[in-house]
Amino acid sequence: MEKLIDLISEQVSAAFEAAGYDPALGRVSVSARPDLCEYQCNGAMPAAKQYHKAPIVIAEDVVARLRKNPAFLTVEAVKPGFINLRLAPETVSDYVNQMASAEKFGLQEEAEKKTVVIDYGGANVAKPLHVGHIRPAIIGEAVKRIERYFGNRVIGDVHLGDWGLQMGLIIEGIRAKNPDLPYFDPDHQGEYPAEPPFTISELEQIYPAASARSKEDPEFSARAHEATLKLQQGDPGYMAIWRHVMNVSVADLKKNYGNLNVEFDLWKGESDAEPYIADMVRYLKDGGYAVESQGALVVEVQEPEDKKEVPPCIILKSDGATLYATTDLATLVQREQDYHPDKVLYVVDKRQALHFEQVFRTAKKSKIIRPETKLQFLGFGTMNGKDGKPFKTRDGGVMRLEYLISEITDTVKARILENNIISGDAVDEIAGIIAVAALKYGDLSNLATKDYAFDMDRFSAFEGNTGPYILYTIVRIKSILSKYAEQTGMSADGLSILPPETALEKDLMLQISRFQDNLALAYRDTQPNVVCAYIYELSGAVNRFYHDTRILSEADPAKQAGYIALIHLACRVLETCIDLLGFSAPEKM
What is the mean predicted confidence (pLDDT) over 12-38? Predict the structure, then answer.
């Protein structure tokens, strides 16, 4: 189904051509002055030089051809050469009725479906999720859902930090507490215990204690490095501990990510790249891509056109140790072999931009990936407090994600109880749904690459540009639909939207009609905030129409049915959009 704006542009382009001008000049845009017109074409201005005529003369020539077109209510030429357009009521209602019956509201999916891998978690095992994990999880989940909506095969990978020195520190931390465990006995025979020797709470204490000790105790630090090496060499006891750590951590991570409605298709980590590293390093050496520099193995990625220095990508340190670049490149090898992706998208802190520039250049230069494979870095900004500094707890620490969710849920619950919105057993469940919407919308409504201030009071408000306001609009529509069904015994399904009779009714239809335009923009530019801006505008149009229109008390059954069909479509569009953003609406609120 074509976009409404494209259909309008086709009509205006045909008028340009009929008047003797280039039809390409007939491109139409949404008016920035809705008080003057709904759509606007500025093609007469650039045409003036081409045809040596005043732009107003060209505009009037085109308008003369458009005035007889039934698709338009009014067509005006305005100095110096603008063409202002208002659509006929039937044009708008016909279009939204087509949307209502079309799959995905007529959205045009990708003609050639792509395979996309999204790397958007980045959590570390044995550590609790904290506020720093919110943005990659929320943004990545929304991007994944939008990509899928356009028909692509999308694989979301959490890409856990589960290898390297942190594991050696954990192993030595466990040994310090329980040196007699069989994992540390070189003469142990048979199977290791099936149950882990720690709980998730104990594990989350072991790592920070071991990390702190390593900074003060050189001997402990040396043992941790040795344990890391032995683990990476496949020591059976250490591998058994690693599996315990993974099982306990991943179960806890799945629970906490689940509280945010975030799901991953793959729970792979840095450890999964390990089997690919040796062959990759050999390939880079044999192909002449990697060279020795001061004892380290590096790939030069500086290009002649670079205005700033881009340092070499280090593959192996002088002692043979691997780095993040090594595992990231090996992970690309694995992804290429397993999925042959058309695009790999990384949702990572924007401060990692140089690292990924080095990795991407190395992957392209060495042909680790196909030339046509797109590597994209979506660097997100920082979530700050009201003071503009990185968000912290009251005592200055890094807040755990579960505590933040709990705090915003309590804030929402207090608002619900204060306003007597809901009572009884449903309060806790509904407060949880609204809290997730408040948190996610508060984040996603900002451009991903920008820093933003986390304001719990503002994000949880039921008015303004917030998640709860969007949910409130949806629930209000559902309430009207429910009452209509009770009054008439009819559902909204199958009802037709009538041509609008008021400006607010028409505005609501026009807002609905722009669903595909905004989704396409969000998809093209990887910007979920575009969807947020769209549903905020659509919610505003719904509420203005509701306040101006007597829907349930309308005496004319046909007109009332048209109103119901219109708000039902608005509700479906809103619910589709919030699902793409990763949250849902309660039935009551």
Answer: 96
- Provide mean pLDDT across the span 74-98: 98
Pair of tokens at residue 380: 């997100």
Residues contacting 581, CB < 8 A, separation 6+: 142, 145, 440, 441, 444, 528, 531, 532
CB-based burial label for 101 (10 Å; 0-12, 13-18, 19+): exposed
Enter the tokens of residue 216: 């003060």
Give the three-class secondary structure for 311: coil
509-530 per-residue burial string, b: 16 or more CB within 10 A, e: under 16: bbbbbbbbbbbeebbeebbbbb
Residue 364 CA neighbour count, 13 Å, CB half: 17
State the maximum Cα–Cα separation within the chain, in Å, rounded to a whole number. 95
Q: What are the angstrom distances between the C-alpha of 335 and each of 225, 342, 375?
A: 29, 11, 12
Residue with tokens 């959009």: 577
Return all residues near 100 (Cβ < 8 A) that are at least 6 apart. 497, 565, 569, 572
Q: What is the DSSP string of 415-431?
A: HHHHTT---TTHHHHHH
Q: Model pTM?
A: 0.94
pLDDT tens digits for range 471-502: 999 999 999 999 999 999 999 999 999 999 99
Q: pLDDT (tens digit, 9 = 90+) per residue, 165-198?
A: 899 999 999 999 999 999 999 999 999 999 999 9
CA separation for the pair 563, 549 (Å, rounded): 9
Closest by CA to 343, choosing from 142, 107, 216, 523, is 523
Dist CA 177 CA 183 (whole Å): 13
Q: Which residues of 426-456 are buried (b: 16+ CB within 10 A; e: fewer)?
A: eeeebbbbbbbbbbbbbbbbbebeeebbbeb
Confidence of residue 392 (pLDDT cuts 50, 70, 90): confident
Residues 6 or more apart whose CB falls under 8 angstroms from that of 114 comprise 152, 153, 342, 343
Which of 19-28, 180-189, 412-421 shows the lowest mean pLDDT across its residues? 412-421
> Starting at the edge strand that comes first in sequence, how are the strands of the sheet with 343-349 ordered?
153-157, 115-119, 343-349, 374-380
- What confidence tier does 394 reach under pLDDT thresholds 50, 70, 90? low
- Residue 29, strand partner residues: 40
> At 376, which helix (H) or strand (E)?
strand 374-380
Q: In this structure, what are the phi and psi dihedrals at residue 400, rounded to the nearest 5 degrees?
A: -70, 145
